[in-house]
Amino acid sequence: MAGTSISELIIFIAAVSIAAAVSGAMITTVGGISGSLDERGADIASDIATDIEIISDPASGAVYDSSNGEVRVLVKNTGRRTIATEGSAIEILIDGRYIPSSEYTITVLDGSIWHDGDVVRIVVNKSVTSGDHRVTVIVESEQEILRFRT
Amino acid sequence: MGFSVSGATAVIFVGVLVSAAVLYPAVDRYTERRSETMTAHHENILTQQNTAIETTSTTYNTNTNRLEIAIQNAGSSTLAVSKTDLLIDGEYVGLATTNTTVANDSTTDIWAPGETLTITMTEPVPPNRIKIITGPGIAVTESVEVI
User: Fold this and answer.
1) Helix B2-49 and helix A2-48: axis angle, to 10°?
2) Domains held by chain B: number
3) ipTM
């Protein structure tokens, strides 16, 4: 009789322990999913609020400076959030080729921070041959293309 | 055996309740944030669609070296003068309140539908073309008439 009670007690403790372990794992996993969901929500919100427009006038001849071998692009922040101009927030492609950040400079015109409505000048130190060319400016998932000829 | 099953079920049930309590606010925040952002994004698109500008005159006077640009807000959204940009021959020119007027008011930032924004600049040489860019990104390019 006493043996049966001890057996049942052991089985009870084992069952509850396993259930507690399963519950603990489930709570930890769900906590992780919640955190990821929060981060994903913030990323999507930031992505949707980001919008840019290349405002350079390609027919003016001001996009390419042949004497200095520079491609100059004016980009306006038409979204609803401030965009960082440092680090890897902005990426540039010329004719589909990636330009490392060491080869271009970004200057915020009329200010120091790229608020919505503000314009930045991107100067890329790159000589291009005469003909048709394409500059791509990428900010997060937003991408704008300017086609120009030299 | 009966106690073991009941005890385990109770513990699992508590775990499910706690998990639901943790997950629900996160899902709620996610959907609310996404919905708010999408609404604002749709408003932005609507503003862009309702924005239109037309240049009524772009003249350069060689006697006074003055470039005068008159642009009408031909859309239905109200624009901001401070968020309007000007390019002269592709070069960015910052607009100051001293050289912009809307309906003869040089202090206002409001450029309402139907109103004309007049920009007056002093340029040493006659420019060939200008480009006006509004806050929502709608732009117009025009050749300069030299008189």
Assistant:
1) 0
2) 2
3) 0.81
